[in-house]
Amino acid sequence: MSGSIASYDQLVRQVEALKKENSHLRRELEDNSNHLSKLENETSDMKEVLKHLQGKLEQEARVMVSSGQTEVLDQLKALQMDITSLYNLKFAPEVAGTGRSTEDNPPPPAPHRDGSGDLGRATFRMLEELDRER
C-alpha cells in the first residue's frame, strides 16, 4: 500500500508542476498578445504617417513637374522604389504556405547612373540604424 501512496504523492507533485507551468505559459501568452497588439498599433500609425508623406510627395512632384524640375522628381521616384523594396524585404510576412520569407526575394534595384542610388543606399543605412535602435 505504501507503493500506491508514493505513486499518489508523485502524481500530486506532477499535477502541481503542470499547473505552475500552465500558469507561466498563460502569462507569457498574455504578454505576447499585448506586445503584438502594441506592434499592430505602431504599424497602423506608421502606415498613416507614410500615407501622409506619400500625399505630400505626390503634391511636391506635381509642383516640380509643372515647374520643369524633373531631375529631382526622378531621384524621388528612385528613392520611393528603394524604400518600397526595403519594406518588402524587411517587414512583409512570410509567403503563405511556402515557409519561405520575403528575404528570398531579389534585392532592391541596382543604383541608377544619375546618382539617386547613393540616396537610396543612405536611406537604407538610416533605416537599418533605426531598426537596430528599436
From TrEMBL:
It holds the Pfam family APC_N_CC. The gene is Apc2_0. GO terms for biological process: cell fate specification; cell migration; negative regulation of canonical Wnt signaling pathway; negative regulation of microtubule depolymerization; nervous system development; pattern specification process. Gene3D superfamilies: 1.20.5.10. GO terms for molecular function: beta-catenin binding; gamma-catenin binding; microtubule binding. It comes from Jacana jacana (Wattled jacana). Residues 24-43, 96-134 are annotated as: Disordered. GO terms for cellular component: beta-catenin destruction complex; catenin complex; cytoplasmic microtubule. This is APCL protein. InterPro entries: Apc_fam, APC_N, APC_N_sf. Residues 6-57 form the Adenomatous polyposis coli N-terminal dimerisation domain. It comes from the Eukaryota.
